[in-house]
Amino acid sequence: MKPRVIEASGISKTFTIPSVRRDTVREHVLDFFRPHPSERLTVLDSVSFELRRGESLGLMGRNGGGKSTLLKIISGIYQPDRGSVTLNAAVTPILELGVGWNPDLDAIDNIELLGTVMGMTLRELRAATADILAFADLERFAKLELRHYSSGMAARLAYAVAFHAVRDVLILDEIFAVGDAGFKERCQARYRELHRSGHSMLLVSHEPRTIATFCDRALLLEGGRIVKAGPASDVADAYLALLTDPSSRDPEIEPRPQRAARR
Amino acid sequence: MISAATAGLRPGRAQYSGLVWTLIRTDFKTRYHGTVGGFVWALLKPLTMFVVLMAVFSYVFASERQYKLDLIIGLFLYEFFQESTKMGLLSLRAKGYLLNKARFPSWIVVITSASNAVITLVLFSVVLIAFLAMTGRVPSPVHVALYAVYLIHYVAIAAGFSLAASVLFMQYRDLNQVWEVISHAGFFVAPIIYPLQILPERVHAYLYLWPPTPIILFSRSVLVDGRTPSLVAHTLLTAETLVILALGALVYRLKAPRVAEHL
């Protein structure tokens, strides 16, 4: 068996519901003696899985199922409350890439910001800038400030940077949902090329066809737990069944808010 | 807990030096819109402020030379403090769009946020020393070197404050308002518009705890009066700086892993 590149064991994560969260100094001072209701939402509940070298793993689940939170924890952007993640390879996440640029800077400066954050050197980036712009089909807008970009253009640029920044494991959130047919085609071609050359992939999608086509194996995440793991096409079928089955609205597998009174 | 099992998985120093340079360059660019014209602006700001203040206190208020220089040094040094701490406090929230893209040392964002203020401070210092030289009271090289040492302390103090304030501001969304009030009040705590001697001796020690106070007084002492503060005074300044830096780093270490969750 090939070596493990990601090993996640027993990952749990809860969030405080923002509407009851105290997040100003004023609230902390003025409401000091008032009881502090805290409503917490369990997003991930003891999730364990592993990713092996060269493998392509899909992650499916309904909205609110914990997919994006899991990807953020694997990428090191969030900390798990319990459990651990062991990385044996460098991880490049492509998450929420449509949003988040410096609107006052042009594409080239933004490429340098995002690329250096993703761990590329300036030398590598400068060598790759022309390729990145070509991949995103944005050569003509290289000197245009991002404030003037459409959301589709901005997302294409982000994917282009991240695809060039990949060093070992690639983590993708809803990758093939961006851009026009031509861009999707380029993304898929690049994905296959990376997969062929031995990169490992972790891919989130709502689209059963995408998972069945691009992944070897998949996990179905529901209510913060893995309810099915196995060959990608089986998991894609299970996901479809979950969406159409009325009994799947069972509260047992909905995210469970836990009420607790805390000062 | 997230651990990288093999050394060298995280991008090394060379990569992040690219991030440091890109952050400084793009901060400068967004601030002054463009490069060549921007540099002229950055240069003109301390120069024109110096000329305006000199003119106002020479002709309008007709004050004596000593008071004039003391006041200008105090105003400029305090402005650096206000500017750098404000930018530092806001830094992580302002660059939030980078925090949820990848895992990287976010303190780089905090520290480089002071770069514009540091550039202004250095340019002002050059203008000031040039003025002193032209008016025939050039400070000795030892005193200029000591002044440079004070500035390094000053930047370290601002960095220590920023490390703590930036992560706390992610959690307490009105901290910027609180700090604005404190730093405005602090303008009158530091002996900028009044001489320290008008206050009773027993409160002097407390005033020195407010970091701009020792920096301003020592800088005036070496540049205008040509007197070197005592060894004890220097030791206390270094100790105060190290305490602030250590506390800032400690708060940052405690809070930084979870800052992305407050975005």
What does this structure look like?
The complex is a heterodimer of chains A (263) and B (263). By secondary structure, chain A is of the alpha/beta class. Chain A contains 8 helices and 10 strands. In chain A, helix 3 crosses helix 4 (122-136), helix 5 (151-165) runs parallel beside helix 6 (181-196) and helix 7 runs antiparallel to helix 8. The longest helix of chain A is centred in the C-terminal third of the chain and has 16 residues, at 181-196. Chain A starts with a strand and ends with a strand. Chain B has 11 helices and 1 strand, in the order βααααααααααα. Chain B has helices spanning 13-32, 36-60, 65-94, 96-99, 107-112, 115-134, 141-171, 175-189, 201-209, 212-225, 231-255, and one strand at residues 2-4. In chain B, helix 2 packs antiparallel against helix 3 (65-94) and helix 3 runs antiparallel to helix 6 (115-134). The chains are: A alpha/beta (263), B mainly alpha (263). The interface between A and B is large, with 47 and 41 residues.
Considering the chains and any ligands shown, give keywords for the structure.
heterodimer, A: 263 residues, alpha/beta, six-stranded mixed sheet, four-stranded antiparallel sheet, 10 strands, 35% helix, disordered C terminus, B: 263 residues, mainly alpha, 1% strand
Concise structural overview:
Chain A has 263 residues and is α/β, with parallel strands linked by helices. The longest helix of chain A has 16 residues.
How would you summarize the topology of this molecule?
The complex is a heterodimer of chains A (263) and B (263).
Chain A: E1 4-16, H1 25-30, E2 36-52, E3 56-60, H2 67-74, E4 82-87, E5 91-94, H3 107-117, H4 122-136, H5 151-165, E6 169-173, H6 181-196, E7 200-204, H7 208-214, E8 217-222, E9 225-231, H8 232-244, E10 257-262
Parallel strand pairs in A: 3-7, 3-8, 5-6, 6-7
Antiparallel strand pairs in A: 1-2, 1-4, 2-10, 8-9
Helix pairs in contact in A: 3-4, 3-5, 4-5, 5-6, 7-8
Chain B: E1 2-4, H1 13-32, H2 36-60, H3 65-94, H4 96-99, H5 107-112, H6 115-134, H7 141-171, H8 175-189, H9 201-209, H10 212-225, H11 231-255
